[in-house]
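Complex record, two chains
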Amino acid sequence: MTEKKKAVVLLSGGIDSSTALAIARKEGFEPYVMSFNYGQRHVREIESARKIAESMHVSRMIVLDLDLRKIGGSALTDEFMVPKNRPEQEIAQGIPVTYVPARNTIFLSYALGWAEVLGSHDIFIGVNALDYSGYPDCRPEFIQAFQNVANLATKDGVEGRYFTIHTPLIHMTKAEIIKTGKALGVDFSLTHSCYDPSPDGRACGSCDSCLIRRKGFREAGIPDPAHYAV
Amino acid sequence: MTEKKKAVVLLSGGIDSSTALAIARKEGFEPYVMSFNYGQRHVREIESARKIAESMHVSRMIVLDLDLRKIGGSALTDEFMVPKNRPEQEIAQGIPVTYVPARNTIFLSYALGWAEVLGSHDIFIGVNALDYSGYPDCRPEFIQAFQNVANLATKDGVEGRYFTIHTPLIHMTKAEIIKTGKALGVDFSLTHSCYDPSPDGRACGSCDSCLIRRKGFREAGIPDPAHYAV
C-alpha cells in the first residue's frame, strides 16, 4: 500500500472549509488540519472545527493562537458592531467591516510553514470568489500570487519541489458548495457560520455570514441544520 | 508641519534590522516597530530590539507571540544543534538547519496587516541577499512576489493604495551594512546576533550568525562591541 500524499487543510469550522476538507480527502490526500484562534468574536467556530475534523477522522489537527487583536482593524476582532440584515446587493458590493487585514495571507503563511515541515506540497483553502462577501484575499489572483510566494520563499520551492494552493470552491456558488459537501457526507449540523453568535451558541441569523448561509441552503433545497436565535 | 508618513519596520534586534530602522527614519518615515517572539532559542534578541527601538525614539512597538514551535522544523526553534565553526564556503552554500520554514512570509504578513490598519503603505525589512546565509526568503524575487501578494490581498491594494516593501540592505555586504548603520548612529552594542548565546547572554562566537557578524566588523574596520564567550 502506498502512503497517501499529505495535504494541509485550513479549517475554520464553517461550510466552505469543511467542504474543502471533504474534497481533499476524496482526492486521496491525508489531511493535516490547521485552525486558528485569532481573537475572533466567533471563537465557537474552533469547537466546530474540532468536531468536523473528528467526524472526518483527521489524524492530526493543530490550533494556533494568533494575536490579531494587537493589530486590530476589524469588526471580527475588535469591539465594533457586526452589521445586520444588509440587503443582498450591499453584501455583494465593497469590502465589509468584518474584513480582517491580511488574514488569509497570514493563514496561508502558517500553512506553508507547516506543509514544508511535513513534507507536504499541497494546501487546501476554502475560499470562494463568487459568494465571497467582498474579501480581496479570496480572489483567484491573490491565490495565484501567494502560490508564487510559496515557491520562492521556501527551501522546497528553491529545490524544485513546488507547492500547490488548492481552491476547489473558488468558482462555486454557496448552493453548489452545500450540495457538494452534502454529497461527500459533511455533517453541516457541526458547522458554524455566524459572526456574532448569542452566548448560548445560537446563530444571529442576520449578519452577512448568516444571510449568505441561509440563502445557500434555500437555493440548494436542503434544510439548514443551524440553530438561529431569530 | 506635515505629518510624517508611517512605516512598519520589522526589527529582530540584530545588525541588519537595526540599520534598516535607522534608514527608515533617515528617509523621513515615522517608524512603527514590530518584533516577534517565535520560540527562538535566542529570545534575548527581543530585549535587544526593545533597547534599539528605545534608543531610536520609536513611538510605538508591538511584540507578537507566534507559536512556530508547534510547526517545528528548525534548529532555531527546536532542540537540535546549532552548527558551529562552519567554513565560510560552507556557510555561503545551501540552506542551513537554522532556516525557519516560511518565517519571513509570516513576518511580512503580520506587517502587512498592521500597516493596513495604521494607514501605512511602507514596510521595511532588513533582508540581505549577499551575506544572506542561504535563506530563500531573503532574495529580491521573494520580496517582489510578496509585494504583489500585498497589493492583491488587501482593501488598500484593491482600491489603488499600493504597498512597498523596502529592502534597503538587500544588495549590501555585511561590512557595508555595518558602516551604514554606524554612520546613522546605530548603537551596535545593543544588537544581538548569536543563534546560541550562553545563559549569561554572551554570544557563542562560532555559529553562522556570529561568524558572519565578526567577519563584517573586521572588513568594515570597526571594533565589534559584542561580548563573545570564546
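Note: The helical segments of chain B are 15-26, 44-55, 88-92, 103-118, 140-153, 155-158, 174-183, 208-220.
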